[in-house]
Amino acid sequence: MSVVSSSKVIFCEGKQKSLDTKLLERVLETMPVERPTIVPSGGKFTFSVFAQGYFFPNETVNQRYIVFRDRDFDTEPTTNIQLLKWQRQYLTYRACVENYLLDVDLIHRYWVDEYTNTVTQDRFEESLATYQNRFAQEEFWVQRQYLNWFHGKDIRKAMQKQQSQYISLYDSFCNWAIAQLDITQYPELMELRTKIEEL
């Protein structure tokens, strides 16, 4: 017996309440056609086996599904901002879904909403000076290369190791920011939506 609740399925990394699932829910939020079932299936190396078990006893060849996951460093980003096809999977253009939350406006709004009373001007300026010195390579920032080469998960871990009071990107910020994310600003996410509609 199959557990499919829709004729269209999107497999993604993570667990039921993972950021990957939440991003896909944002992509599908206003989709006018049949809403696919989002199926988190753990890590990137188990998709084919997971799909076989999910659709059992039917063959996966005849099913309407796609796999959406982090690009990680399995392939390089192209010069065009778009979904990257790798085998039967669609990969994020950015290194991982967390990198879509590395947005100056989102981070600013989050800090204003959540930390207005705890962050002082002096503490902010002191931290800002530290990071300005550390990331002084103008080309790296102007060309926004950090969006394609830094891994949001690694940045979060590094920030937490340096100072435990830094915002936890994975918990409160990610949950807040994913709800604020304007997916129409990302051509590759709109392309993903089109691919889903075409299933």
Written description of the protein model:
This protein has 199 residues and is α/β, with parallel strands linked by helices. The protein folds into 2 domains: 8-97 and 181-197, no CATH class; 100-179, no CATH class. The chain is built from 9 helices and 5 strands, in the order E-H-E-H-E-E-E-H-H-H-H-H-H-H. The chain is elongated. The chain starts with 7 loop residues before the first strand and ends with a helix. The model has no long low-confidence stretch (mean pLDDT 83).
Q: Structural class, from helix and strand content?
A: alpha/beta
The stretches of 5 or more residues where confidence is low (pLDDT under 50) are none
Shape: elongated
How are the strands of the biggest sheet laid out side by side? 2-1-3-5-4
Summarize the amount of helix as a percent range: 40-55%
Quote the distance from N terminus to C terminus: 22 Å
Major β-sheet annotation: 5 strands, mixed
The average pLDDT score comes to 83
Q: How are helices and strands ordered from N to C?
A: EHEHEEEHHHHHHH
SS summary, helix count: 9
Structural domains: how many: 2
In percent, how much strand structure appears in the residues? 5-15%
Number of strands: 5
In angstroms, what is the radius of gyration? Answer: 19 Å
Structural descriptors:
199 residues, alpha/beta, five-stranded mixed β-sheet, 9 helices, elongated
